[in-house]
């Protein structure tokens, strides 16, 4: 007899939806790949992929677009997590793109390799003939991400055009593409930052240590705390100091800001996130503060 009082929690509903998306894409596309940075969203995605196919291994590789300016703690975690799961890791190197003349290193105080990732990613997709790339974007992050479909079409140049996206009715996804085109797939579209942290706590997932409060030498720029590292191009008018901070997101260390925090445990982080009214990208990503259109411009170029 079917129970009439069977209820799913919020996390169970989100998990089931994401697993369905991952399975459908794996069935419909020939060469999917999961974009894995070692950040909390990609960590949750990899866990969902494990659940989607257990007890079999994850049937597609993971790929990290490596700027060469990453936090060492994140790279160490990435390599260890990949070894634990046995999944194949593809590293697409921005430094190699620079060495090959595919992109030009930015100069100046605010130089970053964040935008350079676009060419490196698209070259890797073409080289490996990936036709679907799982990304960890969530609609709550900012306005441009909220326009995305779950299965988001990219043309033969890797570009995103919001006017050219296919309609999605309920959980019906259009997966048809032509030669040279691909899709970005966002299984976490309907999750929030707080959902991610609640799921990490429930699943007892390990995270890179920079997500929790720790002492770090930083400097202030445009109201953000950036790590005092050689490639951050700190000016003489930007004195470095030590502060107790943590990171809400990970990325290129030259443009990813820390937040002052004493949250040293999962429970403390969740309490802190529940009280904040500023999105993680708005608070910690210098490149997204350039203008309201910054993220949408980069999406149209093909990275996000």
Structural shape: globular
Spatial sequence of strands, sheet with the most strands: 3-2-1-4-6-5
**What is the overall pLDDT average?**
88
- Structural class call reads alpha/beta
Low-confidence stretches: none
Strand content: 15-25%
Query: Can you summarize the main beta sheet?
Result: 6 strands, mixed
- Our count of helices gives 10
Alpha carbon gap, first and last residue = 47 Å
Cα-atom radius of gyration: 19 Å
**What is the succession of H and E elements?**
HEHEHEHHEHEEHEEEEHHH
Helix percentage: 25-40%
Give a topology summary:
Elements: H1 10-28, E1 32-35, H2 40-53, E2 62-66, H3 72-85, E3 89-93, H4 94-99, H5 117-128, E4 132-134, H6 143-146, E5 151-154, E6 182-185, H7 193-203, E7 214-221, E8 224-227, E9 240-246, E10 259-260, H8 266-275, H9 280-284, H10 294-301
Parallel strand pairs: 1-2, 1-4, 2-3, 4-6
Antiparallel strand pairs: 5-6, 7-8, 7-9, 9-10
Short structural summary:
Residues 32-257 form the Phosphoadenosine phosphosulphate reductase domain. The protein is of the alpha/beta class.
What report would you give on this structure?
The strands form two sheets. A six-stranded mixed sheet has the order 3-2-1-4-6-5. With 304 residues, it is an alpha/beta fold. The model has no long low-confidence stretch (mean pLDDT 88). It has ten helices and ten strands. It comes from Actinomadura parmotrematis.
């Amino acid at each position: 007899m079917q129970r009439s009082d069977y209820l799913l929690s919020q996390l169970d509903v989100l998990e089931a939806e994401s697993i369905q998306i991952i399975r459908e894409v794996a069935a419909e596309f020939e060469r999917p790949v999961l974009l894995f940075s070692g950040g909390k969203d990609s960590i949750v995605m990899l866990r969902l992929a494990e659940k989607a196919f257990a007890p079999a291994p994850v049937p597609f590789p993971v790929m990290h677009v490596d700027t060469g300016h990453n936090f060492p703690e994140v790279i160490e975690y990435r390599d260890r997590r990949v070894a634990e799961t046995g999944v194949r890791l593809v590293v697409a190197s921005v430094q190699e793109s620079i060495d090959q003349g595919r992109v030009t290193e930015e100069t100046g105080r605010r130089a970053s390799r964040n935008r350079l990732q676009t060419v490196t990613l698209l070259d890797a997709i073409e080289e490996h003939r990936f036709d679907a790339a799982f990304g960890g974007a969530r609609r709550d992050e900012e306005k441009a991400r909220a326009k995305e479909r779950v299965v988001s079409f990219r043309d033969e140049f890797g570009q995103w055009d919001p006017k050219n996206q296919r309609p999605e009715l309920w959980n019906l996804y259009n997966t048809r593409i032509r030669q040279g085109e691909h899709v970005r797939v966002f299984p976490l579209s309907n999750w929030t930052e707080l959902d991610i942290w609640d799921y990490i706590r429930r699943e007892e997932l390990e995270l890179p240590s920079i997500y929790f409060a720790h002492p770090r030498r930083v400097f202030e720029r445009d109201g953000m705390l950036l790590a005092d590292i050689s490639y951050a191009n700190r000016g003489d008018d930007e004195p470095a100091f030590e502060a107790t901070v943590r990171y809400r997101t990970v990325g290129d260390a030259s443009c990813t800001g820390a937040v002052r925090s004493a949250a040293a445990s999962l429970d403390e982080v969740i309490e802190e996130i529940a009280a904040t009214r500023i999105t993680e990208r708005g608070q910690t990503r210098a490149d997204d503060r350039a203008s309201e259109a910054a993220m949408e411009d980069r999406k149209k170029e093909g990275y996000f």
